[in-house]
Amino acid sequence: MTPPVNRVLGNGAAFQAIFFEEADEHLAAVEQILLRLDPAMPADEDLNAIFRAVHSIKGTAGMFGYAEIVTLTHVLENLLDILRKRERPLTRQDIDALLRAGDVVKVQVTARRGGTTAEGPAMKAAEDELRGLIGTSGTTVHRFAVRLGPLAEPIADDALQTVLAGLAAMGEIDDREIRNQAGGEIRFGVALAGGEADLRSVLELVVARELVQIEKAGAAQAAPAAPAPAETPAAQDPAAFDMFTSPEQWRERRGKRDRRARERRENDRREGDKREVERTVTSGQGDASSIRVSVEKIDRLVNLVGELVITEAMLAQRHGANPDLARHTRDLQEAVMSIRMLPISAVFTRFPRMVRELAQRLDKEAEIRLSGEATELDRGMIEKMTDPLTHLVRNAMDHGLETPDVRLAAGKPRCGTISLTATQRGGSIVIEVRDDGRGLDRARILERAVQRGIRIAPDAPDREVWQLIFEPGFSTAEAVTDVSGRGVGMDVVRRNIHLLGGSVDLYSKAGEGTVVTVSVPLTLAIIEAMTVGANGQTYVLPLASVIESLRIEPDTIRGIAGHARTLRVREDYLPVHQLGKSESIAVIVEAEGTRAALLVDELIGQQQVVVKSLEANFRKVPGISAATIMGDGRVALILDTAHIVSRQGEHSWQPS
Known about the structure:
Layout: H1 5-9, H2 13-36, H3 44-63, H4 67-84, H5 92-113, H6 121-135, E1 139-148, H7 157-170, E2 172-178, E3 186-192, H8 196-203, E4 212-216, E5 221-223, H9 247-271, E6 280-282, E7 288-291, H10 295-319, H11 323-339, E8 341-343, H12 345-348, H13 351-362, E9 366-371, E10 376-378, H14 379-400, H15 404-409, E11 416-425, E12 428-435, H16 442-451, H17 462-466, H18 490-499, E13 503-509, E14 513-521, E15 526-534, E16 537-542, E17 546-551, E18 557-559, E19 565-569, E20 572-578, E21 585-591, E22 594-600, E23 602-610, H19 614-617, E24 624-629, E25 635-639, H20 641-646
């Protein structure tokens, strides 16, 4: 006999965690497909892929009794089934409704993950919208007479009730005659949108195939939409089934779940702690190809490797370097750090939806092109990059791209283009946000600068003018909207990127568009650095910001009116910041496209250092980005070169 539904329902939290992860993946995939769908020529494989994803969510949600998810995804299925069977053309309205319904399902899944239930106006609105679209074409309802038996043994009560409740949620059940006992029978009538094969696949969850007898009861009839499960009391306990899955597929799926359950129980016994067991993700051939590990465990591993790096440095200082230990430590560090790396697609994938919705709100036509999504970045950096990139894309949509009429008048295509590109260059990730819009208005920026009392020469180079938009509160928008124009944004973008040890550069050409280039280190945990001595203290400079170091003669440092002291390096005059007592060694650093000379007493060397948050362990110090522990056990401060370089005109600088 086929395993009853209640056995599946009893697998507990382990399978729930799998459901939440898979639901997130399905919903993300559905959104991506919907955003690229062309209503005029939708690909069959795309519509089928969306249907399968929604179908999978509904079936598994039913197994756990998540009634509100089953209810909404069932209505989604009805609309998708109409569209994939080409019973009517796909429209923009359909795509919008499907996207909004997907958002509601995301909220429902998130709520269930937190142990609560998400229901309310949003769910009702999504259902009503979908039912309205279904009603424009109608669905076919079939009536069947069902007989289960004679039963060799009673069906488990909870399994039987779950299936009956699920059928009631999907259609209508009447004429029930329940004799759930050995030798007894179960009879009822049912009206469903699915066919006999769909109904049989559900019933065979609780009884053997030979005990299921189904007869058609009257002709099929057209109905505007399936009955609303939310209005049926039985819908609160939905069935653990999928309406469009064949019996063979169900048996295969149950077999996989049973195998995974056995493997998980074995792992639980081996590990001794069920909470530490993570899901094995298998390849299509069934071989274990990867594992999911909790973030907390990875972070702890990174911290331990960081301590090992510090210990190795201490041993090298006290007893001399051991090449084998140094090599193994570096290899281990690189291997562990790679575990924390995630593709930047985790950030990029949210922007197609944003561009689409902003285009609708702003009456513009736009498309977004993504490149380099597989480029990997530290997980911690991924989280911190989301807000700055979101603001840059919104800016490109609002300030950059013109309306279709304006673009046509300028000889451009109606549809504007925003491009997001990510590449790895050495130890940094470079992200470029480009649009083919109107470009920055130099005259308008200079006019606003005068109004704000910012002193800048009218003939200043473009690069210097563009930097004005990073000033706090600076905006050229004529009116404040809910998208932009409040003067809050680009300064925050630059500050957040600076906090990550990165930089922001900007290029624009009138009528052709704007390019914003963001560069950030691959990771914040361990960095390549130059250590220097100044006033008896050891300081650390991120190697990414160091251009060169050189010995200088005292008479090469001179004062220039309005610029305090400067150092001539080849053809450039660089502002000088004195960290130490000596004026014989200069380290040339660069931040935000500006260079400066830091005068130090000695160059100690180049090494990897483990970054420790100063703010989390002490307090925020201007000019200091973090701290580290050196090989002799002393704490050294990591200098914020962007902060130091920005303090033009100051003769010396010391951490306060």
